[in-house]
Each structure stands twice: as structure tokens, then as C-alpha cells.
Amino acid sequence: MTFSLIAVRRPVYGAPGSVICISSVVGAGGEMVMEEGRPGPSKPAADRRPQKREKKDKQQDKQQPCEGFSIKAMMKNSVVRGPPPAGSVKQRPAKHTAFRKFYERGDFPIAVQHECVGNKIAWKVEIEDLDYHYFLPLFFDGLCETEFPYEFFARQGVHDLLEHGGSKILPVVPQLIIPIKNALNLRNRQVLCTTLKVIQHLVVSAEMVGEALVPYYRQILPVLNIFKHMNVNLGDGIEYSQQKRENIGVLIQETLELFERYGGENAYINIKYMIPTYWSCM
Predict the structure, then answer these.
(1) Which residues on adjacent β-strands are paired with residue 7?
(2) What 3-state class would DSSP assign to 29?
(3) How does DSSP classify residue 45?
(4) Tens digit of pLDDT for each residue in 50-82?
(5) How far apart are CA 268 and CA 260, in angstroms?
(6) Model confidence at 39, in pLDDT bands (50, 70, 90)?
(7) Dihedral sign, Cα of residue 180, residue 183, residue 189, residue 194
């Protein structure tokens, strides 16, 4: 009696990552005999990569942020938090000023004069007859305002008072330092531009005013040192804020140059002490 053997090898996947080859033998009588062979080649390495990535993702999820210079910072899977932002250029919230209170109460002899070009202040009395020790510090205090009509009356009123003040301005200079400092400390871009233009007008408004401001550079210049380099480098582009006089970096540079020109012989030393990056323009 003869047998005809037919051998068939089929791969069967067993445990993860292994392959077992099973041989089947068919005899003449039709019976089938199964023989288990040795394990075949394992799965390709590419199939196991997602498992490794999942493990790495789990390890990253376990990383916990902690404060620096602490015991927890030296532990495994600890990530040290970076330092918080200093907020030197962050805008401060503005408060209601005394100028708003006095305006709403009707203590200022002013009104709005509407014209086709723009609005102006219609003074109900002669500006030369006003008490500068009383009105000028109040109008300077209104430089912190950003809402209409308070911002308009304060800004335009200061320029009108400085234009017609003459010799009355110099004795009032010490009373103007705190309102100027409060306006600069708001870090508001609009208030900064307005205050810098007012300071420039104040320096040239009367004789000896520039020299009278020298002892107060320590109150005025720290904020200017922060925003001195806030300029826009557009290459061949056009910066229209320079034409509108709204570029803070340019306004600060102009203000410092006026301080040096009208501040006398000690002006440059005091400016250089507070703003080391400033170079003389004379």
C-alpha cells in the first residue's frame, strides 16, 4: 500500500511579535496530521514603533512643573517653570483724576468751540488772569485721562496755558512733577505721546524752566528709559507714526535732546546717569 504525502506550511501568529509555522500532512486515506514547527521570523520593527512612542508620551505626561531652586526641581520628570514676565511695559489701569471731578463740577471757565478744522477751547476769561498755581497743576493732572471730553480739555488746556503763561510757569514747576510722573507711569501709549509733547512744550515755554527740571530727572526719566528703544524698523518702508508724531521712540529722543539743550551744564550728566544709552546731541 502506497501513501501520497502533500505537505503544506501555514504561518500562524502566536504571541505578540512571534510567528509559528504549522505543517499539515495529508495521507492517502484522507486523514490530516498537524505538526508544529519552530517559530518563524518576528514582526517587522516598524510595527513596534507606535508602542515605544506611546511609552514616551506617557513619560512626558508624567512631567510635573515645579518652582526653581526647590527639592522637587531635582526629582525625575520635573520641569522647572520659567520666570514670570516683569510687566515693565504693561499698561496700568487709570483712575479718575481730580481734573474730571473739577470739570464735572463746573469749576473751569472753559467750553468747546467747534470749528471746521477741529475743536478748540473757548476760555470764558483771559488766560493771563488765571491763577497758575491753582489751574496749571489741575490741567496737568488731567493728562491721565483717555476719554472725551476730559482728554481733549486737559491736553488743549495745558498747551493754551503754557503758550500764554510766560513768567508765571517757572514758580509752578515743582507742582507739575507728580502729575507728569503719574501720567508716564500708566504706560499707556496714547498718554505717553501726549505727555511727551506737553513736556517738550513746557521746556521751551519760558526761561529757566529747563534748568528747573534737572533736579526732577529721577522722577521723569525712568519710564523714558524703558520705552526709549520702542521704535519700528521697517527697512525701506514708511513709518507714518513719525509724521503724525505718534512714535514713542522718536518722541523720547526729541525730549531728551531738549532736556540737554535747555537744562544747562549739568543736564547731560544727569540724563546719562538715568539713561546710560543716551548720547549727547551737542
Answers:
(1) 25
(2) coil
(3) G
(4) 555 555 555 556 778 888 888 888 888 888 888
(5) 6
(6) low
(7) negative
